[in-house]
Amino acid sequence: MVDSLSYALGDTISAAAGAIQSHESLFVVLMKSFSNLAIPLLLFVVPLIGFVKKVKVYEVFIDGAKEGFNIAVRIIPYLVAILVAIGMFRASGAMDVFVRIFSPITRLIGMPAEVLPVAIMRPLSGSGSLGIITDLLKTHGPDSFIGRLASTMFGSTETTFYVLAVYFGSVGIKRTRHAVAAGLTGDLVGLLMAVLICRIVFG
To answer: For residue 193, what are the domain limits?
Structure first.
C-alpha cells in the first residue's frame, strides 16, 4: 500500500514537473519567435501605417531628426550636471554601500549580487549602467545567466532620474509631482519581471 502510494505520488510529481517544463519550453519558443519577428514587423508596419494615413514617412522622419538635434543642444547643461553627480556617486563608494545593504534582499528573489549595481545605476544613468553591463559581459560572458539578466534589466527599465533632470528641466518643468514615484515603481516592476522571466526562460 505504501509502495503504491509512493509510486503514485512520484508519478504525479513527475507529471507536474513535465507539464511545467513543457509550458516553459513553449514560452521560450514563443519568446524567441517574437524576438526574431519584432524588428521586421516594425520595419513593415510603420511605413504601412504611414501609407494608410497618407503620411510622408521620410519627410516626417527628417523633421523629427532636426527637432531632436535642437533638443540635444538645449539639454546639454542638464546632461553635464547629472553626469557629474553620477560620477561623484560612483567615485564616493556609495554604490558599494548600496550593494552591501541590499545583497541579502536580492538573494531572496533569486537575483545574483553581481547585477545589483545595474539595478541601482539604471534609474540614474543609461551610459553608467551600460558600462557596468559591459564589465559583467566581459567577466561572465553574454550567454551566462548574469549577462542575460543584466541585459534584460537594461531593456525593461528606464533612466528615471536622468529623465527628470534632463528632459523635465529642458522644458522648464520644476514640479514633478508623482513622476518620481511612478517612474521608480515602473523600474521596480521591470526589475522584478526581468528576474522572473530570466529564471523561467534561462533557468
So the answer is: 56-202
The answer to whether 194 and 153 are in contact (CB under 8 A) is yes
For the chain, how many structural domains are there in total? 1
Instruction: Let me know if residue 96 belongs to a domain.
Output: yes
| Cα–Cα nearest to 156, from 117, 179, 122 | 122
Q: pTM for the complete prediction?
A: 0.59
- H-helix or E-strand spanning residue 87: helix 57-91
- What stretch of H or E contains 70? helix 57-91
Q: How far apart are the first and last CA of the chain?
A: 37
pLDDT single digits (tens) 121-147: 888 877 778 878 888 888 888 888 889
Question: Is residue 1 situated within a structural domain?
Answer: no
Angle at 188 between CA 151 and CA 198, to 5 degrees: 40
| 203 membership: H or E segment, kind and range | none
